[in-house]
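W.,

You were right to be curious about this one. When I first looked at the sequence I had no strong expectations either way, so I just let the prediction run and decided to look at it fresh. Below is the sequence, 77 residues in total, followed by the output.
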Amino acid sequence: MEKDLIEFIAKSLVDDPASVSVTETEGERGPVLQLSVAQGDIGKVIGKYGRIAKALRTVLSATSNKDGRRYSLEILD
């Protein structure tokens, strides 16, 4: 569910929604969602001063508290 939510939000933000992909891996501190977008859309996902990235992480944190698993989000270049 968390993976689909982040993918949906990211596709809504970028110019090239076909290039958005979210993969789930296991990190040291738990599951990690890795978001990759087209090179020209990275700024749109991060936002000015990182505000959009912070909002994505906040939404992810709110949904992961229901499951008991704590996800983290990485935005790949």
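Here's what jumped out at me. The chain has three helices and three strands. And, maybe more interesting for your project: The first strand starts at residue 21 and ends at 27.

Coffee later to discuss?

I.
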